[in-house]
Amino acid sequence: MNRADLETMAQREVQRQQTFRCRILCCASTPCLSSGGSAVHDAIKDAIKEGGFDADFQAVATGCMGPCSRGPMITVQTNGGEDVIYEHVTPEASRQIVAHHATATPAPVKCILPSDIPFFAKQKKVVLANSGFIDPERLEDYVARGGYTALGYALREMTPEAVCREIIDSGLRGRGGAGYPTGLKWDMVRKAHGDKKYVVANGDEGDPGAYMDRTLMESDPHRLLEGMAIAGYAVGADQGFLYVRGEYPIAAKRLERAIRAAERRGLLGSRMLDSNFNFRVDVRIGAGAFVCGEETALMASIMGMRGQPVPRPPYPAQSGLWEKPTLINNVETFGSIAPIIQHGAEWFAGLGTAKSKGTKIFALAGKVDTTGLIEVPMGITLREI
Fold it and tell me: So what's the pLDDT on residue 26?
């Protein structure tokens, strides 16, 4: 597959989706599934089939929509109309919703979630732009929203040094907690000497109440893979590892499927997008050790050893996996890469504050009106949130 083929795939998928008068997006992230989302999705599919609406209606299992405590959630998209979000949907209510949008019968009004609630007011979706709008298990859905165009542009129009410079100029800092400038770390690995280099995505999210990384891996796995591939090109690595927390089976499954789908289309593996660049990604599952969220312990676990931190230096950029230069970034950090390449460093640097650029995903839990995920510009206060 080359860039022209990628564009053709995107156009075909967009045209296919436009043939449906109504698309019903059913949240299939962990919170909604745990509150009965699978039964709702099945009821919607049954209602579409029984009503003979197959040609006009499509039921799509998507990722997280944000207000997790209001699940199961669905979003109804109609041609030329505004999206309608429904909360606390039951199988019976889902049948009424299908009937309403198909035959203009009364809708279950109590299920409608207003789009102007404070939860949505100050959000700016960058990393989560696709979450809740695509089927995470269909490559075509991701490509239809511009997926892998940033990778294609980087491989054909940019040098590895230029990619690192773009990330530096964007002001992106690591989202794992330390906040180290991402581009500088990439450039160190690029300049490091070694016959083999590695890229590692840290998805071992162990903090209580945190599920930002899990949501991104479940909802938009190709976004993560594209970011890792761009990083591999930038630093000169041909192997990536995705370290996923053992308690995230849905995320691991969807990542595995996404990797296989990307490999079949030439978007991962050998000669990606008809270039000379090769990059393979493998998933590694953690065994429940909280300490493996620390990068040196994580690398030990990937290599099959006990996950135990070791003193630094040397830093992973000089000596990481199997004593080779290794780039380690948080899952959310990799989720920011494709938008930066696609829209430019200046665009990303225009978000946030003078010293903290871009957006940040937060998991809201505890005694709040709506628990769930938000993505807001850096600099917003805790009081505002």
Answer: 97
